Every structure is written in structure tokens, then in C-alpha cells.
UniProtKB/TrEMBL annotation:
<keyword id="KW-0812">Transmembrane</keyword>
<keyword id="KW-0472">Membrane</keyword>
<feature type="transmembrane region" description="Helical">
    <location>
        <begin position="164"/>
        <end position="183"/>
    </location>
</feature>
<feature type="transmembrane region" description="Helical">
    <location>
        <begin position="57"/>
        <end position="76"/>
    </location>
</feature>
<feature type="transmembrane region" description="Helical">
    <location>
        <begin position="132"/>
        <end position="152"/>
    </location>
</feature>
<feature type="domain" description="ABC-2 type transporter transmembrane">
    <location>
        <begin position="56"/>
        <end position="244"/>
    </location>
</feature>
<keyword id="KW-1133">Transmembrane helix</keyword>
<dbReference type="InterPro" id="IPR052902">
    <property type="entry name" value="ABC-2_transporter"/>
</dbReference>
<feature type="transmembrane region" description="Helical">
    <location>
        <begin position="96"/>
        <end position="120"/>
    </location>
</feature>
<feature type="transmembrane region" description="Helical">
    <location>
        <begin position="20"/>
        <end position="37"/>
    </location>
</feature>
<protein>
    <submittedName>
        <fullName>ABC transporter permease</fullName>
    </submittedName>
</protein>
<dbReference type="InterPro" id="IPR013525">
    <property type="entry name" value="ABC2_TM"/>
</dbReference>
<dbReference type="Pfam" id="PF12698">
    <property type="entry name" value="ABC2_membrane_3"/>
</dbReference>
Length: 262
């Protein structure tokens, strides 16, 4: 555990020195949080619009803090031989990667707590109906997008190109997960395809946990109790499990410890 904390501390130090990464991880979520304020007080299907959009940000922050940041970090460290040098020390592969994961997990947890506080105090005064289900959704999403970051970093030639290689995942998930605009009115075939994206199940589970309504179905969102909410979310959790298995396989195949030209 001590070695993991040392790697995590190194990650935080490097993050503080990289102003671009610092803005991506800290500044961007703060900016997006501020953009929720104009939507405060507007009604969307009986729910405050600011709170509804804000619950989608739990998923959006996953892409920013976990996926984009880790992809950039591992690509840069591979190309400047940092990963190779760390691998030559007493650290195991799991400790090298786990330290970075611990850092982004901690940053994401802080952002999630701040977002809950923002939604519960400044916007609508509403807090999650089922905090445990919300936590399970965020943890499962973090695992999936971390694995995808490992895989995509292996396909990224340079750290500069990392901002481009993450774009298909970013735009695909943002457009298809219903983060800002619900998919209720979209054609059925499109809705079903979007439900297979890695971010969509996270958003569905988060909103079900937050509002105590079944957001795993389209149209009317029926009220659900504790057990009903978990039962309704079995399908989204299954989709996340499938993505975790696929992400693990892709990471094992594509992740690289040394520069691609080596």
C-alpha cells in the first residue's frame, strides 16, 4: 500500500506541474458545474432541469477525469520512458498502474462529492435517493473507463495525439448517453444502440439512484423502491460488466510499456 501511495503522490505532483492536465481534470468540471446554474428552476418532467443535467455530469466527469486523463498520462509516460524505468525498479506492474488509478479515483470521488453538494444545496436541495446504488454505478464506470484508457493509450502514438484519439469515445458517449438531452424521443433502434455505449448504463443507474425512478426504460419513469431500483439496474450493470471484460481484453492486447517505435 505504501508503494501505491508513493506512485499516487508522484502523479499528483506531475499533475500540478502540467497546467493543461490540471485544467482538464479540475478546471473543466468546475466550469461545467457553473453552467448548471442558469438551468436552475426550470422544470423537466417534474424534475429541476439543473439537477437533471447535473446527474449526467457524473458520467461526463468519468470521461474527463478517468478516461482522457489516464490515456494522456500513460501515453506520455510510455514515450518518455518513465514506464520502462519504473518497471525496472522493485515496483510491480500492478503497483505502477494502481498508483495512477488511485490518483484518478480520488480526484473523481472528490468531484462526485462536490457535485452532490452542488445539486443538493445550490440547485434543488435534493440528494441521492439511493447513495449505495449511485456509488456502485460510479465505481463500475471508473473501472470500465480506466480499462478503456489503458487500451487507447496503447494505440496512441504520442502524447500530443492523445487529445485526438480520445475524441471518438468522448463524442460518441456524450451524444448517445443522454447526458444533456434525454433519448426518450429518439427512434427506438437508435435508443437501443445507444444503450450499448459504455457511458449510457452509468447515466441510467445514476439517475435511477438519484431520483428514485426507473431511468432504465424510456417514456414514463415509474417510482421504484430500494429493491426495485437494483432490480431495474441489472441490465445496465450487465452492459458495464461486458464492457469491463472487453476493456480488459483490449488493454491486455494493446497497452504498451515502451515507445511504439522501440
Amino acid at each position: 500500500m505504501n508503494k501505491l501511495l508513493r506512485i499516487a503522490r508522484l502523479d499528483l505532483t506531475l499533475l500540478w506541474r502540467n497546467r493543461t492536465a490540471l485544467f482538464t481534470v479540475i478546471g473543466m468540471p468546475l466550469l461545467l458545474g457553473a453552467l448548471l446554474l442558469p438551468a436552475r428552476g426550470n422544470d423537466f418532467d417534474g424534475i429541476d432541469s439543473g439537477v437533471f443535467q447535473g446527474t449526467g455530469y457524473f458520467g461526463f466527469f468519468l470521461i474527463i477525469v478517468v478516461f482522457i486523463h489516464l490515456t494522456s498520462v500513460f501515453t506520455a509516460r510510455r514515450e518518455d520512458l518513465t514506464l520502462k524505468r519504473l518497471r525496472g525498479t522493485a515496483l510491480s506492474d500492478a503497483e505502477i498502474l494502481g498508483g495512477s488509478l488511485l490518483t484518478v479515483a480520488a480526484m473523481y470521488a472528490v468531484q462526485a462529492v462536490l457535485l452532490v453538494a452542488l445539486l443538493g444545496t445550490v440547485l434543488d436541495g435534493r440528494f441521492p435517493d439511493d447513495p449505495l446504488l449511485l456509488l456502485a454505478a460510479l465505481a463500475a464506470g471508473a473501472v470500465v473507463f480506466a480499462l478503456l484508457a489503458f487500451a487507447v493509450s496503447g494505440l496512441t502514438p504520442t502524447a500530443e495525439l492523445a487529445q485526438l484519439t480520445v475524441m471518438p469515445v468522448l463524442f460518441g458517449c456524450m451524444a448517445g448517453a443522454g447526458v444533456l438531452v434525454p433519448l426518450d424521443d429518439a427512434p427506438e433502434a437508435l435508443r437501443e444502440a445507444c444503450r450499448l455505449l459504455p457511458l449510457t448504463p452509468v447515466v441510467e443507474i445514476v439517475r435511477t439512484a438519484y431520483f428514485g425512478q426507473d431511468f432504465t426504460t424510456y417514456g414514463a419513469h415509474a417510482d421504484v423502491g430500494f429493491a426495485e431500483a437494483w432490480t431495474a439496474c441489472l441490465r445496465p450493470f450487465a452492459v458495464l460488466l461486458a464492457w469491463a471484460v472487453a476493456g480488459r481484453a483490449m488493454a491486455a492486447r494493446w497497452f504498451r510499456w515502451e515507445p511504439r517505435h522501440a
